[in-house]
Structure to design on (354 residues):
């Protein structure tokens, strides 16, 4: 179907709008990517851009469901740390940042909610388009593992697994039927962005995310304080035991945990650290911009997006990144079994408190 017709449909038909706009907006962000040929080789980029803008305007009017969100009051907070654990990641320096009030999802987006989005919009994830996604080796069945010859040079325990996607997180012989309340994984930044926009939300900026993580406490490592296990109680899903060979599953989970597991922080947010990495809106730079002090949005452009919070695979000896100040990155089209997201929303006077 040509883009002019899609464009008109986007204007006129509310339901169809969601479908076409979502697919097109999704495609437009990947014009340079290797999956381009799978979509439409003759796409007119200008049409794409216009369509994308139109989509964003339309989506802005979607009434937001605030029922699984909390309103964060904003104000100033200290972002970053002067005691960086992983200095190369740009955790330092500490800086005072001003944040306007905004809303944030209490939970990471679950498989259930992502499935509803897919049913509503027919969204196709990048993992599906690429045909592979990254899975931690020890989560695979022997059958799937034996089929894969190519390892990731930088980290041998990550394998590009054919047919791994959100519904089949460990490849063809896996499913999510007992994980509907777990965070969705194998979603790229582009997928996450499409999801949030389709319901009138957006990804949080890195600063908003870190403000939410810190939960009104200054200079702490974790959302609840400095102790990994206050009163001997688990507060997050990370790797216990010897990485990468022996996960003792002390916290109760080998892979992901349901998004509602563990206590919430002072803001009411759950699983800000551990469980899955969470995409943020910002482009990555290893040197944080110090000129932005009010609602910072990070670098103007880049090749990678910032992810925050660490995952169920993080271990102190290997990836001590389940701290609020920690940060990492991936290209916006990357997906893997330990990266998910949650959405944020602007504060407006139009909301109805549930
Ligand atoms: C292994 O690879 C073969 C050939 O590509 C494929 O037909 C089969 O489904 C794969 N099996 C698993 C468990 O991935
Ligand atoms: C889904 O996976 C679970 C756990 O691996 C398995 O017990 C179940 O049979 C699978 N269900 C289907 C429909 O394949
Ligand atoms: C944040 O902490 C301050 C000082 O302890 C307290 O007065 C304020 O109510 C807290 N705000 C929230 C939103 O928890
Ligand atoms: C894993 O570590 C635990 C705790 O140190 C130990 O008891 C257990 O034997 C180890 N398992 C393996 C397979 O090495």
């Amino acid at each position: 179907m040509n883009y002019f017709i899609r464009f008109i449909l986007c204007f006129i038909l509310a339901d169809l709008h969601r479908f076409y706009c979502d697919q097109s907006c999704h495609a437009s962000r990947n014009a340079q990517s290797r999956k381009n040929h799978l979509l439409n080789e003759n796409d007119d980029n200008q049409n794409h851009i216009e369509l994308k803008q139109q989509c964003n305007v339309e989506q802005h009017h979607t009434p937001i469901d605030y029922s699984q969100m909390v309103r964060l009051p904003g104000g100033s907070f200290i972002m970053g740390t002067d005691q960086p654990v992983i200095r190369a990641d740009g955790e330092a320096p500490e800086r005072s940042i001003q944040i306007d009030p905004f809303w944030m999802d209490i939970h990471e987006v679950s498989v259930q909610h992502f499935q509803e989005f897919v049913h509503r919009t027919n969204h196709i994830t990048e993992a599906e388009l690429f045909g592979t996604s990254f899975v931690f080796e020890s989560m695979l069945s022997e059958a799937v593992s034996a089929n894969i010859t190519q390892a990731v040079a930088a980290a041998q325990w990550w394998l590009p697994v054919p047919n791994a996607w959100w519904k089949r997180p460990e490849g063809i012989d896996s499913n999510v039927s007992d994980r509907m309340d777990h965070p969705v994984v194998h979603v790229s930044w582009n997928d996450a962005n499409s999801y949030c926009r389709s319901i009138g939300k957006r990804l949080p900026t890195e600063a908003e995310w870190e403000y939410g993580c810190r939960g009104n406490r200054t200079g702490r490592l974790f959302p609840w304080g400095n102790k990994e296990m206050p009163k001997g109680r688990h507060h997050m899903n990370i790797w216990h035991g010897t990485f990468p060979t022996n996960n003792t599953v002390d916290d109760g989970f080998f892979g992901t945990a349901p998004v509602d597991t563990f206590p919430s922080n002072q803001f009411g947010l759950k699983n800000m650290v551990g469980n899955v990495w969470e995409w943020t809106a910002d482009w990555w730079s290893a040197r944080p911009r110090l000129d932005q002090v009010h609602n910072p949005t990070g670098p103007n452009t880049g090749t990678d997006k910032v992810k925050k919070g660490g995952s169920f695979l993080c271990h102190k000896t290997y990836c001590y990144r389940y701290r609020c100040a920690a940060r990492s990155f991936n290209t916006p089209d990357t997906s893997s079994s330990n990266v998910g997201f949650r959405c944020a929303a602007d504060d407006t006077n139009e909301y109805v408190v549930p």
In short: Confidence is low (pLDDT under 50) at residues 1-60. The first strand starts at residue 69 and ends at 72. The chain has nine helices and 13 strands.
